[in-house]
Amino acid sequence: MKFPGRRQHRHYFPVDNKNPLTNQVNPSSNATQNYIVGIDQVLVDIEAKVDQAFLDEFDLHRGMSQVISDEVTQRLYQRLKDESLINYEFAGGTIGNTMHNYSVLADDRSVLLGVMSKDIHVGDYAYRFISNTSSRVDLNYLQSVDGPIGRCFTLIDDTGERTFGINAGLINRLHPDSIDESLIAGASALVISSYLMRTQPGDTMTEAAVKAVKCANAAGVPVVLTLGTRFLIEEEPEFWRDFVHKYVNILTMNEEEALAITGIEDPLLAANKCLDWVDMVICTAGKDGLYLAGYVDEVFKRESEYPLLSGEIHEFNRYEYSRPMLLNDCKEPMRIYTHSAPYMGGPESIKNTNGAGDAALAAILHDLSANVYHKNTVANSSKHEQPALTYSSLSQMSKYANRASYEVLVQHSPRLSRGLPEREDSLDQAYWAQ
Ligand SMILES: Nc1ncnc2c1ncn2[C@@H]1O[C@H](COP(=O)(O)OP(=O)(O)OP(=O)(O)O)[C@@H](O)[C@H]1O
Ligand SMILES: Nc1nc2c(ncn2[C@@H]2O[C@H](CO)[C@@H](O)[C@H]2O)c(=O)[nH]1
């Protein structure tokens, strides 16, 4: 995928060319670096293949992310060890994965906020988290705590469904004082998940997250919320609808979470409903690919050259070539939608779907930050006559997001180990041109 930012060797425009008079790289290019910030519960994933009887034995509900006690954790871990069921132990956390994947795709800085153990020993979980995270993810703002980070037992059954058991450690002790307001205010986006609201008495994570969100809202920094797991939303759909309406600009979810928050089964209609509350919606739908929905001002709409599709909304992709905007920036807002099937129809064999949604979000964040980068660097470009949220059209982004998800499906870990291949940098490649 090819657009401005650090990732490209060849740019659309020569922002890093030397000034012929001074023989120096344009100094403003250093001053305009941008970053995104994510808040997460710092977790290491412990992945194992198990069957339903195993889940029943530990009273784990299939497909759910649930918090487990220290006692259950100990028994569970011992069983996995005794039977050599563990495939890998690797850094995880839904936003941790997203920040890592963003930094890999964009080859650029993201900042992760959360906690980290004060004492770290080679080989322990804290060590593993740090060593499995891209060096482009800035961990300097993590708050140190006197105790362990969390563990996420990622239990995969024969159908590929994953069930999470969370041993929380001190992951929810991020304190509001550890939220640096100027860091948030200077970001291109703030990314959070609904998991941050699943806390115990004495935890401060929710307060810290809400402080960051309010700060981002006040500074005009887009707030991106990923819904995490449907069960959390089903418990309090009204609370989540209010929260999303009040604070969130970009909502990310899969079709199950979309059903939980809207009560609507069809992902396109559910995404449309969410536009009543937010500016842009990303709804992944497993083997059915991905839907994006947003707003554009009538004067900036662009008609698709692809065949028009009709689902529950007639010819819904008609304006999918438009770049999405904040509703408030539209004089005459109109709703735009797109759908993309999985890249290459999906891989022949899926190793693991864990984190496929996180990767899709990382790709869209890359596009969003590329827009900020371009605006900072070439402010008077005609491209920015439209105050758009992203660099690319809805249609283009959905393809990029699916492409990034594909990469996660063909590997075990939810974290990308490298950027997408150079040869795909051309937008003329068959897939992108379809
Ligand atoms: N069975 C599949 N076949 C082909 N592509 C798939 C399949 N499952 C997922 N994908 C791809 O991955 C993307 C995201 O998948 P999915 O909807 O499962 O995300 P998710 O449930 O949010 O995942 P997670 O919460 O683990 O990050 C889809 O948009 C699609 O491109
Ligand atoms: N932050 C956070 N991440 C989770 C939770 N449950 C599962 N995940 C992560 O979700 C990722 C896949 O989307 C995995 O890598 C898990 O680590 C949770 O309760 N909180």
Automatic annotation (TrEMBL):
Pathway: Purine metabolism; GMP biosynthesis via salvage pathway; Purine metabolism; IMP biosynthesis via salvage pathway; IMP from inosine: step 1/1. Residues 128-294 form the Carbohydrate kinase PfkB domain. Signal peptide: none annotated. Residues 1-22 are annotated as: Disordered. One of its GO terms (biological process) is GMP salvage. One of its GO terms (molecular function) is inosine kinase activity. Its cofactor is Mg(2+). InterPro entries: Carb_kinase_PfkB-like, IngK, PfkB_dom, Ribokinase-like. Residues 1-12 have a biased composition (Basic residues). Its EC number is 2.7.1.73. GMP binds at G93, T94, I95, G96, N97, R198. Keywords: ATP-binding, Kinase, Magnesium, Nucleotide-binding, Purine salvage, Transferase. PANTHER family: CARBOHYDRATE KINASE PFKB DOMAIN-CONTAINING PROTEIN, SUGAR KINASE. Belongs to the carbohydrate kinase PfkB family. Catalyzes the phosphorylation of guanosine and inosine to GMP and IMP, respectively. This is Guanosine-inosine kinase.
